[in-house]
Amino acid sequence: MDEQAQAAKKTLLRMIPYGLYVLGVRDGDEVSAAAINWVTQTSFTPPLVAMGVKKDSGAYALLKRTGQFALSFLESGQGDIAYAFFKPTTVEGSKVNGQETETASNGAPVIAAAPGWVEGRVVGEVDLGDHSCVVGEVTNAVLKREAKPLTLDELGVKYGG
């Protein structure tokens, strides 16, 4: 790819709107949570979401073991919560990375301050590159309030290859 095409690729990839979510996973007493931004709905029936999950993360390792997850949706203004999950997971009581959590019905942690979340089970995966595209079937959803989603653009962060 020539230099002009490389520049075009970077610019175009930055134009894709990215929301911010917290992926929560639990296996017994082991908990992991990570901020992710590659998420999209891929089917109505059954309800499916695709998530890009970094393969060298603790969340990915637990996701592979358990096949269960919860995905907390962050709202505009919750950048501090997103940033808390850009680092390895720490758990102190009901707090994960310093953020108060609740427990989804499948046992995964969810962000208490989030406007809502979905729970699911892994039904497929495309394992290519440094992130795996994990497909999950939504098995439950909780909406506390409607909200405008938090985006990378709001945080002034650019993510493109």
UniProtKB/TrEMBL annotation:
<protein>
    <submittedName>
        <fullName>Flavin reductase family protein</fullName>
    </submittedName>
</protein>
<dbReference type="InterPro" id="IPR012349">
    <property type="entry name" value="Split_barrel_FMN-bd"/>
</dbReference>
<feature type="domain" description="Flavin reductase like">
    <location>
        <begin position="13"/>
        <end position="159"/>
    </location>
</feature>
<comment type="similarity">
    <text>Belongs to the non-flavoprotein flavin reductase family.</text>
</comment>
<dbReference type="InterPro" id="IPR002563">
    <property type="entry name" value="Flavin_Rdtase-like_dom"/>
</dbReference>
<dbReference type="Pfam" id="PF01613">
    <property type="entry name" value="Flavin_Reduct"/>
</dbReference>
<keyword id="KW-0560">Oxidoreductase</keyword>
<dbReference type="InterPro" id="IPR050268">
    <property type="entry name" value="NADH-dep_flavin_reductase"/>
</dbReference>
